[in-house]
């Protein structure tokens, strides 16, 4: 899969110690994006899912996986496999960022996107909107973005916001 960066022991991409995987390639073009170097689909480097999992194994305290980007849902099949293998290796919760909303992903005709959605605990959804930028909301860049409890939302058939335990 095309990868922009893999960050071990991240504490800023969700709760606890996490492996943060920044996928390469994004079609959204949000003005003011903080990661413009991740937009080019031919940029970054090629890594296998197994190589990324090796990084996870280096620290048993990493109990979370965050898929960010770029746009993780553009590599949905690979990200789904990564999430599955991460859980097999002790990860307890999987978060993903997407420039698409929960509703757009849920109504997608792309079965790969739905499969990835089903792997997630929390989806941070929607594009970055510069006019709604805020430093006061944890784990998000702009106020339109939501923390979606994916399992509860799939069960309810509508977006349910995630609440920290
Ligand atoms: S979705 Fe994320 S990476 Fe893509 S343009 Fe928007 S802010 Fe940047």
Describe the protein.
With 165 residues, the protein is α/β, with parallel strands linked by helices. It has a single domain, classed as Aldolase class I (TIM Barrel, Alpha-Beta Barrel). It contains 5 helices and 7 strands. It has a 7-stranded mixed sheet. It is globular and about 40 Å long. The protein starts with a strand and ends in a 9-residue tail after the last helix. The protein binds iron/sulfur cluster. Iron/sulfur cluster binds at residues 26, 28-30, 33, 35, 38, 69-71, 99, 127-128.
Main β-sheet: number of strands, strand sense, barrel status?
Answer: 7 strands, mixed
Ligands in the structure? iron/sulfur cluster
Strand order of the largest sheet: 3-1-2-4-5-6-7
* SSE string, helices as H and strands as E: EEEHEHEHHEEH
In what range is the share of β-strand residues?
15-25%
CATH superfamily: Aldolase class I
Overall structural class, as computed from helix and strand content, comes to alpha/beta
Based on CA atoms alone, the radius of gyration comes out at 15 Å
The tally of structural domains comes to 1
Q: What is the average per-residue confidence, as pLDDT, rounded to a whole number? A: 97
